[in-house]
């Protein structure tokens, strides 16, 4: 049985922009949080690729990974994820080969097959309407070929990139990537922070069909979890209204800039029955409360999922509240705030 004290915690960041701030402010907050996370003992710091979403500034994901890795010293840094169908596999191999060459032993390459945006922007990125992610396995095979040790007949090479030991993760919100990760013997990260309804089935498929590989001998599953911690449950519930408003604005296709927290009564009066249901479905796995509440609910979640690692999403309006949330989450896990090096079977 998984025990919370032994489970690595990591951070997922979309470089959120709060109302009234700029992308530059978001990047400064990202670097500050990464340094704080490293000091607290978080295992990884991942950034996610999204496009044409006001309020999410992590579009140039590889550049931000370089910024974070350069501003920290030991925390693993990577993508959660790079949406591979948006890119040439050779370009991604070269970018991450460059990152791994500058920051050896610290770079993760998490890959997804969704566009991370709307259809019009997907067309602008991919220059076509026929690229829906169906070719993701082929693109993945091509990318892995560029990162593998050089072969005698290989005409196109990723330099830097070839032969570097960059851990590849598959990300998903359904069982498609779970099955593919299992077949290839790769670690799997499930996006339960916005698609919790498929979590248990996808984990079951991943573990049931896993085939050991050179990269990984046993299945390793990480799950994304929205967690908002504060000094007490009431304060945490109040701060969580920022995250709920963000999901609501996503449902309405509005700007996703972080909004100030509001009373629960004000929030309840702002949405329709169907909007509320959609928001709560996407927020279904979230954990909100004091460090005691967070600890109890995290233990319950681990009992249900047997996750090997938890990637925390904690987007709050005030940067100081966000820093404190991550501090309290780690305290709930039982680590001293001095920070200690967490080890996992992936990328140590």
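Q: What amino acid sequence fits the structure above?
A:
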């Amino acid at each position: 049985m998984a025990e919370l004290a032994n489970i690595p915690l990591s951070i997922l960041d979309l470089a959120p922009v709060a109302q009234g701030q700029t992308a530059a402010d978001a990047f400064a907050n990202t670097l500050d949080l990464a340094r704080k996370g490293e000091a607290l003992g978080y295992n990884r710091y991942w950034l996610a690729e999204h496009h044409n979403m006001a309020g999410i500034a992590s579009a140039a994901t590889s550049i931000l990974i370089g910024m974070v890795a350069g501003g920290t010293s030991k925390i693993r840094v990577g993508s959660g994820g790079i949406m591979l169908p948006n890119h040439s596999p050779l370009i991604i191999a070269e970018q991450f080969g460059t990152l791994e060459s500058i920051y050896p032993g610290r770079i993760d390459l998490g890959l997804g097959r969704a566009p991370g945006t709307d259809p019009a922007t997907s067309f602008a990125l991919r220059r076509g309407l026929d690229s829906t992610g169906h070719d993701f396995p082929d693109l993945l095979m091509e990318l892995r070929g560029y990162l593998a040790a050089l072969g005698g007949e290989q005409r196109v090479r990723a330099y830097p990139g070839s032969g570097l030991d960059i851990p590849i993760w598959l990300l998903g919100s359904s069982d498609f990537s779970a099955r593919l990760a299992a077949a290839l013997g790769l670690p799997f990260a499930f996006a339960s922070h916005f698609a919790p309804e498929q979590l248990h089935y996808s984990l079951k498929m991943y573990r049931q069909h896993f085939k050991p590989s050179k990269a990984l001998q046993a299945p390793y599953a990480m799950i994304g979890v929205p967690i908002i911690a504060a000094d007490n449950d009431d304060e945490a519930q109040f701060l969580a209204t920022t995250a709920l408003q963000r999901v609501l604005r996503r449902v309405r296709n509005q700007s996703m800039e972080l909004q100030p927290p509001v009373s629960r009564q004000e929030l309840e009066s702002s949405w329709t029955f169907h909007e509320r249901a959609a928001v709560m479905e996407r927020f279904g796995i979230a954990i909100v409360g004091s460090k005691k509440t967070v600890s109890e609910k995290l233990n319950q979640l681990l009992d249900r999922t047997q996750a090997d690692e938890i990637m925390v999403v904690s987007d709050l309006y005030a940067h100081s509240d966000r820093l404190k949330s991550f501090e309290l989450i780690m305290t709930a896990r039982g680590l001293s705030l001095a920070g200690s090096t967490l080890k996992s079977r992936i990328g140590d």
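Q: And what stands out in the fold?
A: The radius of gyration is 19 Å.
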